[in-house]
Amino acid sequence: MIAYIKGKLVQILDEAVIVDVQGIGYEIFCANPFAFQDSFGKEVQIDTYHHVREDAHILYGFKKAAEKYLFTKLISVSGIGPKGALGILSSVDAAGFAAAIEREDEKFLTGFPGVGKKTARQMILDLKGKLTDLVVSQQDMPVDEPKDYDRPDNNTLLDEACEALRALGYSEKELRSIRPELQKEKSAGTDELIRKALSLLMKNR
Question: For 173-192, how does the pLDDT look when each residue is reduced to its tens digit (9 = 90+)?
Fold first, then answer.
């Protein structure tokens, strides 16, 4: 399998990018090819998924590792093929989709082209509990731990976590109901608070 392609980005199409690797142009289909616009004419390394069919070998590319991980999970669901998975990735970030799965938001999921109630329910059954790490993607976070004097206090981290949950569609009423429990998590970072919050929100439903 081809895990990534490294070469010069020479063309951006509506559905794909072309990367030149020692004189060979690889066509890589992407959810949003224009996300690579700032790398045009430069050397890039694109994470890829090599999809093999009887009549074709197709490369799908991703800007972030979290997107590739979500893609592989989506195509494991009955009724979701690579094109459908790309359609979902082009419409929502990985964290937003993961949150919708955790809260079993069928209305949100059926908003994607080609996704009916049956497929939405299948996605929830197959993926719930498997995507929580994407709510705050570890690949997009700095690896260095902040020094103690730089570390935000618990209220600041809690506010940041609540803001992220609001962006994912949770109401003020829902957040108020779990805030006292989250305040007990004295040493938790923002990502840990979000995961704890999602768990609490699901129990309250």
Answer: 788 888 888 877 766 677 77
